[in-house]
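re: ur question from earlier - yeah i can do the single chain one, its not a big deal. heres the input i used so u can compare w yours
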Amino acid sequence: MKKATSGVLYAPQSTGVHIPERVNALNEQVNNLQSRYYRSLAPDCELHGSSDRWYFGAILSACTGFIFPPLFVVNVSSK
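and the output i got, formated as tokens:
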């Protein structure tokens, strides 16, 4: 039977890590694409009317209630 090795990879410690320029350029391109994408989504995420605010509040209340169920009991009993 072969000996099993642990799945941990060991990288020797060095004083400085060298990252090729290609990786830096790729990271910059990805960051630029992400920022342009999120800027293009921003107008769609705004609350324009009272119905938008109502739906946002209802979804937020439901999510909060699933995380903290006693809030439903306190909110219902206070009315």
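The chain is about 60% helix and 0% strand. not sure if urs matches, ping me
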